Amino acid sequence: MSAPIVEARHFWPAQNVLGEERDQPAHIRLDPVTYGYTIDKYPETAFVTAIALRQNKQDIIGLTQHAVAVLEVSTPDASSPTRAEDVRKTERRIKKIIARPLTDLSAENVEMRFNDGGCDPSGRMFAGSTNHSPGADGRGEFFRIEPDGKATRVFDKISCSNGLGWSPDSKTMCRCLNQLATPFSPSPRIFAPAPTPLDPSRPPQGVYDGLTVDGSGNVWAARWQDGRVMGFRPDGSLIVNIVTPKCLLPTIPCFGGEPFGVSTTLGTYPYSGDVFVVDFGPGSEMRKIVGEEWKGAERHRFAA
């Protein structure tokens, strides 16, 4: 039996490029009630590729091109503009470098940089890199950053680190590895291989990108260039396909209470680069699919 298909609702015309777009490092913060938002830019780095909130702090943790850092941020209020033409980018600074763990920044690895990352339930930051230098495929690394800045390389020889989440019991880390979504262990188990196409008349498109794990242990992985987020049970079976209409490039799914949000990247389709939402609340179409006992989950925060 094929999995159901649910269409996400177009929520906000963010017009994102890539989160890690060169020379356009920025942090956008939106108030989902007023739709007021702020944009902070960071001229001290060529990239800001992933962020995490901090425990009891207003600033954030960010992965810059080569470092894990504390970044200043703005917070939208009642006076914040809601139209793109009225929003001005505010220059913000890197307040503190927590760690610089990348091991080989030689001339032949000029395109080495951080890509994706996130915090585990203990408040440690996990950060993965990618390397687009000529002939450098497989030179990426993956690090664990303690709150005191101590960095440990967990493993290396990866192409592009993408997607990161933890099971509710904190025992399993799940990440996207090239074409596959896998739980992390010394011998990782592949539980979500390349999917069947939504349209049987064409081959599967795209790759797995960002992911998140809900409070019931289900894994939600974006399929970049495939216009959908796929929901998997802990045993790897497919729950549902969430499609992003008029956009083929979903990148980062996350939960904000019961709503489920998906950010996308800029492309040639009308809603490329925008934000979509899906209602998981009681009585919703999604709640009927996942069950009334389903639980959402917030992203973990850095412990310092």
From TrEMBL:
Its cofactor is Zn(2+). Coiled coil: none annotated. Keywords: Metal-binding, Zinc. Substrate binds at residues 113, 115. Residues 27-258 form the SMP-30/Gluconolactonase/LRE-like region domain. The keyword Repeat does not apply. It comes from the Eukaryota. Binds 1 divalent metal cation per subunit. GO terms for biological process: L-ascorbic acid biosynthetic process. A divalent metal cation binds at residues 162, 209. SUPFAM superfamilies: Calcium-dependent phosphotriesterase. GO terms for molecular function: calcium ion binding; gluconolactonase activity. InterPro entries: 6-blade_b-propeller_TolB-like (IPR011042), SGL (IPR013658), SMP-30 (IPR005511). The active site is at residue 209. Belongs to the SMP-30/CGR1 family. This is SMP-30/Gluconolaconase/LRE-like region-domain-containing protein. It comes from Papiliotrema laurentii. The lineage of its organism: Eukaryota, Fungi, Dikarya, Basidiomycota, Agaricomycotina.
